[in-house]
Write a structure and sequence with these properties.
With 299 residues, the protein is mainly beta. The chain has 2 helices and 18 strands. It has one domain: Porin (Beta Barrel), CATH 2.40.160.40. A hairpin with a 4-residue loop joins strand 3 and strand 4. The radius of gyration is 23 Å and the shape is elongated.
């Protein structure tokens, strides 16, 4: 019986590596992108499955001080599961859970846990190419938010303003575009989306919203990256009991620096802040800095 030669063993190893089972390799191997991509910026490959857990801590003030002001301190915990059934499509399911502390002008408070609006999104990449030293990718995206968030009310039973509700109080479709560009250790991402809610809860609901995000990332070694972004939101006025809410709507921009670390293969840890500036929100409405911590894992 002949003993296997070194060449034979090497050939067998190459044959095994060439089998479709390589889809079980790390995400970098699957998508061909060695940079650390946070949730929403990644490239798809068939069978890619990604789980993201994020916590955000923030504060909002709404209402006339000393009259009907509400101060909301919110902990938002969101789980997002992304799956790529084809090499060019991502399906994403978002499940938010909120812990809200409301402080009212008369000294009373409320403390509530609730489900936010569950959202299903689809992201399809329509163009990917390399032009010189730059790689480009363009995608169209759309989604649907379900009105799973409850209507919160004050001690008298009146609904709280839409700004501090855990959900939009509406069935909300969205549509937008995404663009990504890479060059070595540098990456650039931009996206725009419009949300068009159709009210199903008469008590309080948000209105049309246009949102954009631009970010630049610098890879520092294999396990660390630094990024900075600019996120904006332009909202129409919300409604409260069938009437326009004077303390809602307007424009706000956030400067969003963040650090990304990969302690082990396929695991990303992120830490960042969203610092508002140039707020042009209508009426008595002020948004504070948001702190964010997250973990993303590729299965």
């Amino acid at each position: 019986m002949r003993r296997p030669t070194a060449a034979g063993i090497a050939g067998l190893a190459l044959a095994l590596l060439a089998r479709p089972g390589t889809a079980l390799a790390c995400a970098v191997c699957g998508c061909g992108d060695p940079t650390l991509t946070v949730m929403g910026d990644e490239k798809p490959f068939r069978g890619r499955l990604r789980l993201d857990l994020e916590t955000r801590l923030g504060m909002v003030r709404v209402g006339t001080p000393g009259v009907d002001e509400i101060v909301l301190r919110e902990e938002r915990m969101e789980a997002a599961l992304a799956y790529a059934p084809t090499p060019s499509i991502f399906l994403v399911l978002d499940l938010p859970v909120l812990h809200q502390y409301d402080f009212f002008h008369d000294g009373t408070t409320s403390n509530a846990w609730s489900l936010g609006d569950v959202e299903l999104r689809v992201k399809g990449f329509v163009w990917r190419a390399r032009r010189g030293v730059f790689s480009h990718q363009v995608a169209i995206q759309g989604g649907l938010k379900a009105p799973t968030g409850p209507v919160l009310r004050d001690a008298s039973g009146a609904p709280l303003p839409a700004v501090v509700q855990p959900g939009m109080g509406a069935v909300t479709p969205s549509a937008g575009v995404f663009y990504g560009m890479g060059h070595g250790v540098w990456s650039f991402y931009a996206s725009m989306s419009v949300y068009l809610p159709f009210a199903v809860l008469a008590a309080a609901h948000a209105s049309d919203s246009f949102r954009s995000s631009v970010s630049v990332q610098r890879q520092v070694g294999r396990t660390f990256a630094a990024r900075i972004g600019l996120d904006t939101r332009l909202d129409a006025s919300g409604e409260l009991n069938g009437k326009s809410d004077p303390n809602s709507g307007g424009f706000v921009a956030y400067l969003s620096p963040a650090l990304v670390v990969s302690p082990v293969t396929d695991l990303l840890l992120t830490a960042g802040v969203y610092a508002p500036f140039g707020q042009a929100l209508r009426g008595y409405h002020h948004e504070g800095t948001i702190a964010a911590l997250g973990a993303t894992y590729d299965f």
